[in-house]
Write a structure and sequence with these properties.
The complex is a heterodimer.
Chain A (H helix, E strand, L loop, with lengths): L2 H9 L9 H84 L2
Chain B lengths: L1 H22 L7 H6 L2 E7 L1 H10 L5 H9 L5 E8 L12 H5 L6 E9 L2 E10 L2 E10 L3 E8 L8 H4 L17 E2 L5
Parallel strand pairs in B: 3-7
Antiparallel strand pairs in B: 1-2, 2-6, 3-4, 4-5, 5-6
The chains are: A mainly alpha, B alpha+beta.
């Protein structure tokens, strides 16, 4: 048997694990699982917060856009109204002028 | 007691709603005109939209400040403006269903002006004798404009944007027989 074979046999020899090895592994595995669960919850909570926050942000943006559009519409509406009323005013002024002229030149 | 209060509140709310709806004119009748128009402007702003729009108006900007002042009492603005390519694209009878809605004691014509191919009517809506809405109908040869401004107590309120002066007192006058000034006002 060569040295190499002896080393190999020695390396592959069955060894008993230290006492409490299985418990330690199981405990670590449980710890790791708990950490994973907590992390999953954290990710889920963050996702929910992000979704709610995003939803609120989108809603606010949409509301702001609607308000801006309403503002533009209000401005246009008031301008058209003002212009139409100005036309009426001008016509009334013309009628008034004609009436005055008629009175002064009977 | 609570029941009575609830009933009173309910009646009050119903009355408010009825008043608001009475001021508002059904503009869907004009949809047929819209189909024929080459250009159109349609504005529908209810009270909440007017409020949020007014809140955005900048008091430091001249025109916006004026608009804010104009919209102070405004509780609704509904406007239709249609431009047509040719004369005769619409008939005045097309607007009859709209004007028929004004056959209520709350609506009073305060001005009716007809000159050549143009006709303008201004009506005020009154609740308990107090002006609280206006309707303007302008029929030109190639253009129709209908404006329903709710909450307006005086046409002068709209003068801030239109730079008006003489119309200030129109709506404060008591309801009178409409002044029918035909085209040949000489």
């Amino acid at each position: 048997m060569s040295q190499f074979e002896r080393d190999l046999r020695e390396s592959l020899r069955h060894r008993e694990p230290p006492s409490g090895f299985a418990e330690k592994v199981l405990a670590r595995s449980r710890e790791s699982e708990a950490r994973h669960t907590a992390r999953r919850w954290l990710v889920a909570a963050a996702a929910v917060v992000l979704m709610i926050g995003g939803g609120i942000f989108v809603q606010q943006q949409r509301q702001q856009a609607e308000d801006e559009r309403a503002k533009e519409q209000l401005m246009v509406g008031l301008r058209i109204t003002g212009s139409k009323l100005r036309n009426v005013q001008e016509r009334l002024s013309r009628i008034q002028e004609r009436a005055v002229q008629r009175q002064s030149n009977p | 007691m609570r029941k009575l209060m609830r009933k009173t509140m309910f009646t009050g709310l119903m009355l408010m709603a009825a008043t608001a709806s009475a001021q508002q004119i059904d503009m869907k009748i004009l949809d047929k005109l819209a189909e024929k128009a080459k250009g159109k402007t349609e504005i529908n702003l209810d009270s909440s939209m007017v409020k949020s729009a007014s809140d955005l108006l900048n008091q430091k900007k001249g025109d916006e400040a004026a608009a804010r002042k104009s919209a102070k009492d405004l509780t609704g603005l509904f406007l239709r403006n249609y431009e047509f390519e040719t004369e005769g694209a619409y008939k005045r009878e097309d607007l009859k269903p709209l004007l028929d809605q004004l056959n209520s004691p709350n609506w009073t014509p305060i001005l009716r002006n007809q000159e050549e191919k143009e006709q303008t009517e201004i009506w005020m809506h009154r609740t308990n004798g107090q002006a609280d809405g206006m309707l303007l109908v302008s029929m030109e040869s190639k253009e129709v404009t209908v404006i329903n401004a709710m909450g307006i107590t005086n046409i002068g309120d709209l003068s801030n944007v239109g730079q008006l002066g003489n119309l200030e007192g129109l709506s404060s006058k008591p309801p009178a027989k409409p002044e029918d000034k035909k085209g040949n006002n000489n």
